[in-house]
Amino acid sequence: MSVRCVDTDDDTPLQRAIPMTHEILPADERLLAEVEAWLDAEEVAYKAAFEAWKANDYEGDAPVRGFRCNWDSAKRAWREGHSKIHVFVVGDQAVGFLDGTDILEIRPGFRGNGYGRLLADFMVKSAGDEGRSVVKIEIAPASAEPFWECMGFTLMDDRPSSGGGTFAFKVLPRTFNLGDGERVPYMISFFTQRERYKDEPKAFAQFDGIGEQLRDGRIQLQERAFCFNPEDDQHVDYFVKIELDGRLVHFDKAKYEESTSFGVERDPGYDFYIERINPKHASV
C-alpha cells in the first residue's frame, strides 16, 4: 500500500522543546470544522502565492500547497467509517491532523514547534498497535524529507510512487521471548516470482534463528519474519520458503492456503508474515 504524507516543520525533530498543553484526539465534527477552516485559508493563500509566482515568470521556489485538495475525500472516508482521523490540539486550538498513515499536516503559524514529531510518533505507534510490520508513506513536499529521515524512515528515491511524493518506510520489529521448549533452527525466505524459478534463487528478505517448539508442535520464532520488498509496490506474487533444522518443509506462494496452514498470515498493512511455524507436513 502506498500512501501520501506531509510534514513541514521548519526544524529537525530534536531541535525544539514541546509545550506540555497538547492532546491528540479522535476527530469529531467540531474539530473537523476547525481544521477545515484553516485548510481553506491556507488554500486561498496558496492560490494567491501561485499567481504571484506565475506572474514573476516562475522565478524562485514554487509555493507549497497544503492538503485542502485531499480534505473532502479524507473527511468522507472518516464519516463512512473507513478511516481514522486524529487532531492535534494545543490549548483549545486544532493545530494539526493525521489521517491514518495517509496525510499529516501542521497548521501554518504553528510549525517548527515539534508538533509534527509528536504526530509522526503517534502514527508509528498506532501502526505498531494495529499489528503492522512496516509503516509506508509518501513524502511531499520534498522539503519534508530530512524530517522523516530523522524520524527513522528510509527513503527510496528510485521507486515510483502513485501520489508523486517520495516513497519511504520504517520497519517495526517484533521480537519474542522463548520459553524452555526444545530449540529448532529455522530459516524463512521470501522471493519474487521471477527469482523463484531460477536455478539459484535469491531472496529479497531472509530471517534465520533458533525457535522454540511449543506443546502443540508449532515453532515459535525469535522475531516476526515479514515479507516486504522496498523496491516494488507489493502488488506481485511473492513466494515463501520455510526451512527447519536445515530441512525444506515448504516453498510456495505466500497467498496460498497451504502457506497459511504453515503459519503465514497477513497484517493490516497487507504484508505477509510468520511468527509461528506449523510444520505439519512437507509441501515443495
Automatic annotation (TrEMBL):
Annotated ranges, domain N-acetyltransferase: 39-175
Source superkingdom: Bacteria
SUPFAM superfamilies: Acyl-CoA N-acyltransferases (Nat) (SSF55729)
GO molecular function: acyltransferase activity, transferring groups other than amino-acyl groups
InterPro entries per the UniProt record, alphabetical: Acyl_CoA_acyltransferase, GNAT_dom
Protein name: N-acetyltransferase domain-containing protein
Native species: Rhizobium leguminosarum bv. trifolii
